[in-house]
Amino acid sequence: MKTMDIDAIPGEKWFPKETQFIDDMQEYWGDWGVSSEVDKLRAVLMRRPGKEIEKFDAKEVRFSEAPVDIELMRMQHDAVANIYRDHGVAVHYVEEQREDRPNAVFCRDLMLMTPEGAIISRPGMSARRGEERYVAQALAKLGVPIIKTINGDGIFEGANAMWVDRETCVISTGSRCNRSGYDQVAEELRRMGVSNILHMQQPYSNIHIDGLMNTASHDAVLVHASQVPYDVLNVLKKKGYKILEAQSTTEVRSTFACNFVALEPGLVVMPEGNPRTQALLEDNGIKVIPVDVSEILKGRGAIHCITAYLKRG
């Protein structure tokens, strides 16, 4: 009996493009990515105060009891955005937002930009939950890759993370970031080569890192010394950072002296009304652009809070 000779099914002769995600970023997504708090700022995401600040319960949303001058708040927000533009920064906006979320102006809390894309936050406060949806919507429209959305029982806000360098990031836990949120962010960062993740326990009296610590250059960090753990500052010190201790608790807590944005190493935009801290920075070679954000401060946030980084370096 003759056996039929059946041709073998050929292979596909197709092989995957075996590159790292970061290698594909420019070609398929665009010029995005952050792994520093001080490298040249190129692009940011902001929310210009909209209808959400026109009517709200200040106590419920954790604003100051002092009435907000709505138009002045918008003008001050525009002034910060214009400083960014004057220094070559592309300013993008979250155009849509819930009308019952006045804290949405504080975009930093709603995402964390990494070298490979954005991690979408899951806010801790019920009065903020849901703002992140519209940040995700804005990022998708821009073409920014979203690599993670905090899920399950995780809580995390973008200001609970601070980049030190490409391999090092501080993540704080507290009322705005629980261990589940911390673990989710840490896992994604490790996946992209961040080998040194520093855990910072957030004090009971504070919610975000940028209220206590902020880098002004590659070798200078401003801190509220009594509130920042030794282990975190010891790592920064060993990396060559000079520890600049804020001299006024009033300036740190009331006028948000630490809540500045570096436009580039050694040049920062800082809330006006912090003379002692400004002098400390300037005495250590940091150039300061002070700007009036008095109405924004009534939301218990400042310049760093309203600015979500999309591209540095």
Automatic annotation (TrEMBL):
It holds the Pfam family DDAH_eukar. GO terms for biological process: L-arginine deiminase pathway. One of its GO terms (molecular function) is arginine deiminase activity. It comes from the Bacteria. Keywords: Hydrolase. This is N-Dimethylarginine dimethylaminohydrolase. It comes from Acidaminobacter hydrogenoformans DSM 2784.
